[in-house]
Amino acid sequence: GKKMPDFSGSICWNSFRKRWIMIAQGLTGEIWFSEADTFTGPWVFARSIVEHDGYNFYNPVQHSWFDTDGGRTIYFEGTYTSFFTRENYKTPRADYNQVMYKLDLANPDLLLPVPVYRVKRSSGGWRLLTGDKIAAGNLWNQVQKVEFLAFASNPHNSPHLQPVFDHADEDATQPDLRLERDDSSPVFFSICSNENACTEMQFASELTAVPSKIGTIFKNTSNCLTLTPDIKPR
Question: Do residues 62 and 101 make contact, with C-beta atoms less than 8 angstroms apart?
């Protein structure tokens, strides 16, 4: 639930997540994981993946050529040192050296909210779509803003997530979001409106919007829309 400082990191396309992922430096010794629909963002939420008690770990770099299992397993390294800290103890034979970590991107703790975009309809009005559906329909030039954040899917069948459907007709001017199922696929997944769901999913309540009839979603914290769909993975 804290704001992450803007420090150095590396960005790579990930075939397993089908998104751009960032491995970034936080405060002293911290490394964070984030992901976005395009190379320049929106980068909104991140999850802490490595901490070093009393030690610094900086300039993290992912080495994408080491990826295995179709990108599910990635490797990143950084400089491990007591320099820039007050730590008196120095790890023998490792102080001021490079250390490599392995990260499994299928870990349920790495499930992060994604932007739900307001997308202009060709017939007028607007609808809501996540980045994967926008990319599939080549609709990035129709995106107006990030309405809020939620989950694009429920890959681990979490009991705390529920699908949300759009019951609006094709000629409707705005969405009609409901939890009741219809013949379409879910627009996104929200968190169930109970007091334990956010805690058990390790999300701070101050990040979420007021629970509504469609469950708990996440506030958009920035009015800056940074989209670069023209930058493609190699």
Answer: no
